Amino acid sequence: MTDLSQLVKAYDVRGVVPDQLNETVARALGTAFVEMLRESGDDAEKIVIGHDMRETGPALATAFAEGANSAGAAVVHIGLASTDQLYYASGSLGLPGAMFTASHNPAQYNGIKLCRAGARPVGQDSGLIIVRLRAEELLGDLDAVAGMPERIEHLDLLEGYAKHLRSLVDLSRIRPLKVVVDAGNGMGGHTVPAVLGEQLLPALPLEIVPLYFELDGSFPNHEANPLDPANLVDLQAAVREHGADLGLAFDGDADRCFVVDENGDPVSPSAITGLVAKRELAKFPGATVIHNLITSAAVPEIITENGGKPVRSRVGHSFIKAEMARTDAVFGGEHSAHYYFREFWFADTGMLAAMHVLAALGGQDEPLSHFAAEFERYSASGEINSTVADAAAKIHEVRAAFPDATFDELDGMTVHLGDGSWFNLRASNTEPLLRLNVEAPKPDRMAVLRDEVLAIVRG
């Protein structure tokens, strides 16, 4: 039997095309997805699909649609889309969805993010394993799927998506801002002109300076992964060159957004989480805000100071979204620049987070470097990956080196030290890696603690 365990990950489907993911596999996954929905009691009469700018996207999406048709489901195909545009489609149409993207992965990859109606996530604990097992069965007997007539309707939802986002954050009365946007040849080049520009809607008081807006899944300029500092260099230079108020960088499927200030210096995703949380709590007093355990200690402080209820979560969109739904949280933020909104079906949208930053900055007169200082309170290492042969053994070794610390194991091992410093060490789901995040009140203390842990991990 075909083994799809290396293709179907904890949160999504992702692999090399055509070695791991091809049209035959996509067709089987389309059938399996519809069957899983139906077996779990969901309405599976119709699903919505979209794809990003990767060359392999259209054929894979069409094959998936054929598989869904074979299982008796009609398909609404929205074509080129960002991942949050697909979530908009799932939420506004009330349909399960499939987004073909490999996010920030290199060009030879593609993948699928699945959701139930209302953009509710499908992960390993909410149906994805069932989809994998059923697809493996289907690939073992390709005659098991009966052909059905094609039922694929094409629908353009870009304007509806843009209008919905503009209804959530009013940018019409902010002071004029000059914004450099690096789309990384990804889907930000498709959505930014529609939402922040005047391609479809009235102009906003924004001057957009575009970088790499041409849709190109080969990523000719740099990887579409703004968490890697190497991929911010062009944006930082352009912000300084143009005297811009800020810069925005989107990842390949434009569901994540990274921010740099007027000096080209990065504003941490934790600071953006604090900033957006403060705005959302002003709108929804006393609400719950989710943050993952890697975000800065400043985040729960800011949430509490603004009358909200901070709730700590494991890393990963399926965990965040489940926790948001459970607590009816108004907002959620991750250290990886994923931002989730109750007003957006609890789904993540980098664009809406960017609009909150623009509204906050444009609603006062200070530059972003000054304005954001309120939300940057500690010194953080960022995520540092180390290749290890035995992750569990290394975690045990690190734990033994800090006998007086407080530990928790919500996600990997988080170690709290008495001086306000902490670190988290967790194993990758898919690679022989340990991921380390360190935070301390001062940079020198952070550096010492970081180096102490790394010496054990890499020793």
From TrEMBL:
Cofactor(s) in the UniProt record: Mg(2+)
Keywords: Isomerase, Magnesium, Metal-binding, Phosphoprotein
All copies of domain Alpha-D-phosphohexomutase alpha/beta/alpha, residue ranges: 6-126, 160-264, 271-378
GO MF annotation terms: intramolecular phosphotransferase activity; metal ion binding
GO biological process: carbohydrate metabolic process
Pfam assignment, any one: PGM_PMM_I
Domain Alpha-D-phosphohexomutase C-terminal span(s) in chain numbering: 383-454
Presence of the UniProt keyword Membrane in the record: no
InterPro entries according to UniProt: A-D-PHexomutase_a/b/a-I, A-D-PHexomutase_a/b/a-I/II/III, A-D-PHexomutase_a/b/a-II, A-D-PHexomutase_a/b/a-III, A-D-PHexomutase_C, A-D-PHexomutase_C_sf, Alpha-D-phosphohexomutase_SF
The keyword Magnesium is annotated on this UniProt entry: yes
Taxonomic superkingdom: Bacteria
PANTHER family: PHOSPHOMANNOMUTASE
Protein family (similarity comment): Belongs to the phosphohexose mutase family.
Name of the featured protein: Phosphomannomutase
Organism annotation: Pseudosporangium ferrugineum
